[in-house]
Amino acid sequence: MGSTADDGRDGYLAFVEGNQHRLLRAAFLICGNRHQAEDLLQDALLKLALRWTSVRDGDPAAYVRAILYRDAVSWWRRRRREWLSATPPERAAPDRDGALRLTLHDALGTLPPRQRAVLVLRYYEDLTEVATAEALGVTVGTVKSQCHLALRRLREVAPALTGDDRRVGAPTVWR
């Protein structure tokens, strides 16, 4: 028995093809590890496939983002271990902002998962506070407080990101 247009397979495949790279970048920013990000996204897309018929008419990208962030926090809670290494496991691609990107990556790595998720959703995904709260399943007040704490922590651990170091031409990332 062949598939019909009503089963949504084509719509699901079109969604995955159109959004997988953006969702993978978001997953990487949340967990900081490419392989873990790929696993998180694969699991999230599987969960989406199982619920596609009920999610497809809403906002499937928001549904997947919520799964990504919740699964990343769950994974972190199960494996609270530090991975020490003399050298970074992956090399950044050479670009003009390479040092700043590495600084930002390292600074994000110092944040707890919920704070990291809030920053990624608010500033990378450019979601509103309400949409961020819905994606994470928390209140708007929690989003505001976690964002405030995360930005304060980033200013402490990476002052180069604020632009307050008064260097000529210093890039400003967080205000």
Mean pLDDT: 81
- Protein structure class: mainly alpha
Query: Topology as H/E string?
Result: HHHHHHHH
Shape type: globular
**Number of helical stretches of at least 4 residues:** 8
Helix content class: 55-70%
| Rg over C-alpha atoms, rounded to the nearest angstrom | 18 Å
Strand content: under 5%
List unreliable stretches of 5+ residues: 165-175
Number of strands: 0
Specify the oligomeric state. single chain
Please outline the major beta sheet: none
Tell me the distance between the termini: 58 Å
Structure summary:
The protein is globular and about 50 Å long. The termini are far apart.
What does this structure look like?
This protein is an all-alpha fold and 175 residues long. Helix content is 65%, strand content 0%. It is built from 8 helices and no strands. Helix 1 (9-31) packs antiparallel against helix 2 (34-50). The protein is globular, with a radius of gyration of 18 Å. Mean pLDDT is 81; it is low at 165-175.
Summarize the topology.
Blueprint: H1 9-31, H2 34-50, H3 52-55, H4 60-78, H5 98-109, H6 113-124, H7 129-136, H8 140-157
Salient structural properties:
mainly alpha, 175 residues, single chain
